Amino acid sequence: MPASQKKLMTLLGIALLLQALATLLAYGNEVRQGAAFGGDFAVFWQAAEKLAQGNAAALYDATVLKQVLDGKTPTGGQVAPFVYPPPMALLLWPLGYTNYSVAVALWTLLPLIAFYWLLRKILIYSEKDAAEHYRLAAFFTLPFVMVNLMSGQTGMILACLFMAGIYGWQRKRWWTGIAFGAMVIKPQIGVLLPFMLIATRQWRIMAVAAATVAVLFAVSTLVLGMGIWQDYLSIMPLFGRFAHERFAPFASLVASPYMSLHLMGAPLFI
User: Fold this and answer.
1) Burial of residue 165, with CB atoms counted within 10 A of its CB: 0-12 exposed, 13-18 middle, 19 or more buried
2) Do residues 10 and 136 touch, judged by C-beta distance below 8 A?
3) How far is the C-alpha of 238 from the C-alpha of 81, rounded, in Å?
4) How far apart are CA 26 and CA 30, in angstroms?
């Protein structure tokens, strides 16, 4: 990279770092004024609490969604049903035995540390100037990291699973498929992975990923009961209608194959 281009990239990276710090300070001020840290993490926390209390039957409660769709409840308030597949519940369950502050700290910090560790490992394997590239990569991921930090969503966890898969793929490790298969906790994000594995003829990785999905589904069924799948499938059409009515203006901002298909006319189920 020419020296002038390198300098420009470094300056841009520093600008992104300053922007991230300013955003974090502003967010910290909102939290001090009473806003709950973690945003959408409340959805996962409520699910974890239900599981820890042995109330798995209430995990997919469609009551509020039905009331909103029937016009009996205003949509101005926060409506945040848990609509992730049962394997996601296995990940959340341990958080229910802690308080909210500990749970949101674990949810935020552990994936953050893993993300930057994996980013460094991947770059060390693939780039000569790994140290220099890592600094720039870390800067340029900050906008996405900050959004996830404030929203309390699953982005960092899914990014870690994907990067762990890439890390294993680089080194031809057998467990690569486990990382990819575990992305079933939010299946619409990994919808292109099977096509990628078929195109690159990674049959072993694909087999391990499929086995991982099967094991996660089986364990979810054994732990939560067969009825959990009926509850999950029952809430999906309701949430599809709810999301279409409430989040339609944001659809064009969601960069994923799933949402792209929806914008082309495919039905919205998740």
Assistant:
1) buried
2) yes
3) 10
4) 6
Residue 217's Cα: distance from chain center in Å?
18
Q: C-alpha dihedral over 215, 221, 222, 223, to 10 degrees? A: 110
- In degrees rounded to 5, what are phi and psi of residue 8? -65, -45
Phi then psi for residue 128, to 5 deg, are -65, -50
Written as six digits, the tokens of 52 are 């820890």
Q: How far is CA 107 from CA 75, 97, 154, 184, 248, in A?
A: 28, 14, 9, 18, 28
Beta-strand ranges (E) seen in the chain are none
What are the tens digits of pLDDT across the range 169-206? 988 898 999 999 999 998 877 778 888 889 999 999 99
How far is the C-alpha of 1 from the C-alpha of 194, rounded, in Å? 35
Distance set, CA 243 to CA 46, 217, 239, 248, 253 (Å)? 20, 25, 6, 7, 14
* CA-atom Rg of the chain in angstroms: 20
The total number of residues written for the chain in this structure: 270
Whole-angstrom distance, CA of residue 111 vs CA of residue 157: 6
Query: Of 263, 256, 82, 36, nearest to 158 (Cα)?
Result: 256
| Structure tokens belonging to residue 265 | 């006319």
pLDDT in tens, 54-64: 888 888 887 76
Give the whole-angstrom CA distance, residue 20 versus residue 191. 30
Q: How far apart are CA 267 and CA 246, in angstroms?
A: 15
pTM of the complete model: 0.82
Q: CB count, 10 Å around CB of 154? A: 22
Residue 119 CB partners (closer than 8 Å, separation 6+): 134, 137, 138, 141, 163
